[in-house]
Amino acid sequence: MTSFPAALSAAADRVEARLQAEIATLPPSVVRDAMAYAARGGKKLRGFLVLESARLHGIAPEQAVAAAAAIEAIHAYSLVHDDLPAMDDDDLRRGQPTVHVKWDEATAILTGDALQTLAFGLLARPDAAPTDAGRLTLLATLAHASGGAGMVLGQALDIAAETAATPLDLDAITALQAGKTGALIEWSACAGARMAGADPAALIAYAQALGLAFQIADDLLDIEGDIALAGKRLQKDEKAGKATFVSLLGIDGAKARARDLVAQAQDALAPYSADADILRQAAQFVIARKG
Amino acid sequence: MTSFPAALSAAADRVEARLQAEIATLPPSVVRDAMAYAARGGKKLRGFLVLESARLHGIAPEQAVAAAAAIEAIHAYSLVHDDLPAMDDDDLRRGQPTVHVKWDEATAILTGDALQTLAFGLLARPDAAPTDAGRLTLLATLAHASGGAGMVLGQALDIAAETAATPLDLDAITALQAGKTGALIEWSACAGARMAGADPAALIAYAQALGLAFQIADDLLDIEGDIALAGKRLQKDEKAGKATFVSLLGIDGAKARARDLVAQAQDALAPYSADADILRQAAQFVIARKG
Q1: Neighbour count for residue B3 (Cβ, 10 Å)
Q2: Which alpha helices (DSSP H) does A124-182 contain, by range?
Q3: Distance from C-alpha of B186 to C-alpha of B284, rounded to nearest angstrom
Q4: DSSP assignment, residue B182?
């Protein structure tokens, strides 16, 4: 059996190639250059989850890679806009200047916009899912997961928290995270079931635990991480006095909670037996990663 | 036969209601409020074109209204982002404070993002087109028309023009307009043919002439318009020293060119005979409008 790191790396290469190929179909412009730049690198964990959940449902990567590229385009757009001065005001991303630093704010706004458009365009491609019905289900669920009921809602809650009189409590942080990070991870992990018209319940349970573990790990990296590995300004949340899982649970409490969630994610995959071992390893990986 | 103003007004009411109903399905948030605010008002000319081209192909408004709402959501998102300080820096839109003035820049960025997401989500709804294949064709063509090969490309060219050493010539202005305004108008006018699986060639020819006439009329309004009617800061392009159709052709030349384009748009509808009279009136309207 393939190991998780090998599967992740193969998926990352495949998804990045598909995404860059789609960007390359656009007419030359500064926005196209900035899109290619913003889509480069990263772990491509979300794209991997799409391909792996597709495989679990008997769908080959060639029949699902455009959906995997689509979720990475959504993720890339959200990072470009998140990094803007009016949002998180970050100048480094994956160790490189952010788009508005390398170009300018207007280019960064348009680049994020066009990456989102590209994501939805990818879902109409024949290699997004084996059937028209599958493509339309992916479309409807991605719009729900990434818009004003999902990722953007989480970002809006995050911004509201910054000016709130009192720090968020654990329930509020969990709700915020469910939108901001969780919704895209859940969509990715469920994509294969949705392409196949199968029940996504087990993958939803897996993804919800995984998404929360992922965010806790991110908060821990933010405190403990090494700037060279994580490639972004660290301890930012701490400096901003923002409530995080770590500030609410403590470092040891947050680590224990992340371990529980990983076990929960792995248990949720019981219906898939040994076929889901790579997804089980993926859950372990999110709390062991260093960047 | 219905007259164009009656058809436009009926379409505007129907499309706005569908769009607001979709926004109302989102969980409460400042972004949802700002989306509802940004989607309010306007002529809804693009939504009208979708419903009217659907009618021409035997498709009832109830089977197409989500597609009409989708294009208006795209248009609204583009205005919210265009108005941002890093872009056109406008504080008034349709006579009201723009989203970043009424709320703040972060909210405006997220509101535009979520309106775009909503647009694509609407195309997955049963009332976007009578068939799955129709919905997917609308999705693929809207992604092309609104992204880095269409509207966003036009905006990028527009920004580049502002810092260019020499003003744009007529060909460059025409290419810029084809992306910035033309692509969405073309998508709207062709939507009915695409829903029905019919050849959109006649509607493409109509829309290309209409879109150009629309932009020339906009440039003329910018020079001659009345601030109370147009509801936005006027003579902005002139102040910025930007090349426009009016600066290149003169007021009389621009008016003559717009009249020729309207005739061209009307002629392109020959295959539809009298059934397309409302679209013929629409072409006349775009150069006669006062705001």
Answers
A1: 11
A2: 132-146, 151-162, 170-177
A3: 17
A4: I
Q: Which tokens is B138 given? A: 């609308």
The closest alpha carbon to B7, from B98, B95, B68, belongs to: B68
Task: Report all structural domains of chain A as residue ranges with CATH numbers, in order of start.
Answer: 4-288 (1.10.600.10)
From B78, B77, B84, select the one nearest B34 (Cα to Cα). Answer: B77
How do residues A119-153 score in pLDDT, each as one tens digit? Answer: 999 999 999 999 999 999 999 999 999 999 999 99
Residue B98 sits at the chain A interface (C-beta within 8 Å): no
Q: Which residues of B touch A155 (CB under 8 A)?
A: 110
Cβ <8 Å between A116 and B114: no
Query: Using CB atoms, which residue from A77, A117, A147 is nearest to B114?
Result: A147
Q: Is B117 on the interface with A (CB under 8 A)?
A: yes
What percent of chain A shows pLDDT beyond 90? 76
- Bigger pLDDT: A74 or B288? A74
- pLDDT tens readout for residues A16-48: 999 999 999 999 999 999 999 999 999 999 999
Sole residue written with tokens 């000016």? A163
Read off the pLDDT of residues A184-224 as tens digits, 9 standing for 90 and up. Answer: 999 999 999 999 999 999 999 999 999 999 999 988 888 87
Distance (Å, rounded) from C-alpha A29 to C-alpha A92? Answer: 23
